[in-house]
Design goal:
Layout lengths: L7 H35 L3 H32 L9 H21 L4 H17 L10 E6 L25 H12 L2 E5 L2 H11 L3 E6 L1 H11 L4 E5 L14 H13 L6 H9 L3
Parallel strand pairs: 1-2, 1-3, 3-4
Helix pairs in contact: 1-2, 1-3, 1-4, 2-3, 4-7, 5-8, 6-7
The structure holds iron/sulfur cluster.
The site of iron/sulfur cluster (SF4) has 14 residues, from helix 5.
Length: 276
């Protein structure tokens, strides 16, 4: 099934939204720190001063750590440098700032789904800046149940091989892809089953297909496992007869199998647009 590909410009703008909100979150923490310093210097007696001093010191350390992490994220995204030793710190900084970025986005009337898809783009780009060479058995494709045709009687969530391959939905193509590449495929009804599958398969990398909300929660949940997130397409609205660009899933699997030898999703999209 041919899916519309996002323009390269959109991808860049999407990443900027999330990075902008992370920067605004740091600015907000700095503002709180300055308010703390102001109160410390002007308002309270000795007792409260020590508490404030502790808060100011805590915020200063927090700002220092997340600023280093965010600098690493931005430089990796701009291809300035890949900081292999800083991956953990970069992930931690994003995790700390993410809830604050959502609140600031809400104040600025930026729709949640746009912020979340921006986060997914940033996550994918950071994952693609690394090199992988993972055994196919240790790669898991996690697909949502809503990809299955709503009137299909076969229970693919218990076992994907229950699919009768009528070709009416993308479960059929994903199953063939998993057989061809030798990777695991699980179809899940939600976060609880997805977590169960991760515990069961113990993957070293995941290609996750879902909507903005489920993908974001899944990526945050499975951190620090490397995840490439691919948004499903919802021509009939959410949670019913959705589809996915299986070629993108295949590219993501190849990336984990061959590392940088495989093309990144963005390179793949670029090639698709110019007809390679
Ligand atoms: S491809 Fe498989 S899962 Fe999809 S509708 Fe046909 S039998 Fe059902």
């Amino acid at each position: 099934m041919q899916m519309p590909k996002p323009a390269e410009g959109n991808i860049r703008i999407k990443k900027r939204i999330f990075i902008g909100l992370l920067t605004a979150s740091i600015a907000f923490i700095v503002l709180m720190l300055l308010v703390g310093v102001f109160i410390y210097l002007n308002k309270f007696g000795n007792w409260y001063r020590y508490i404030l001093l502790f808060i100011v010191a805590f915020l200063s350390v927090l700002i220092f750590i997340v600023s280093i992490g965010l600098t690493g994220v931005v430089m990796t995204l701009w291809h300035v440098k890949t900081f292999f030793g800083l991956q953990g710190l970069m992930n931690t900084s994003i995790n700390i700032l993410f809830p604050m970025a959502l609140v600031i986005g809400k104040i600025l009337h930026i729709p949640k789904d746009i912020i979340k898809s921006s986060y997914i783009e940033v996550n994918n780009k950071l994952t693609q800046s690394r090199v992988f060479n993972i055994d196919s058995k240790k790669i898991l494709i996690l697909a949502p149940h809503c990809l299955q045709k709503w009137d299909c009687p076969y229970k693919v969530t218990t076992d994907v091989s229950n699919c009768h391959h009528c070709g009416r939905c993308d479960i059929d193509r994903l199953w063939k892809l998993s057989q061809q590449k030798g990777v695991n495929l699980a179809v899940v009804t939600g976060g609880t089953l997805a977590r169960k599958m991760v515990v069961e398969y113990k993957p070293r990398a995941i290609v996750a297909i879902a909507c903005e909300r489920d993908l974001t929660e899944g990526i945050l949940d499975t951190n620090p496992l490397p995840v490439i997130g691919i948004l499903n397409v919802r021509p009939e609205g959410p949670c019913k007869n959705t589809c996915v660009d299986v070629d993108r899933v295949s590219e993501a699997v190849d990336f984990f199998l061959k590392g940088k030898a495989g093309r990144s999703i963005e390179e793949f999209e670029k090639c698709q647009r110019i007809g390679h």
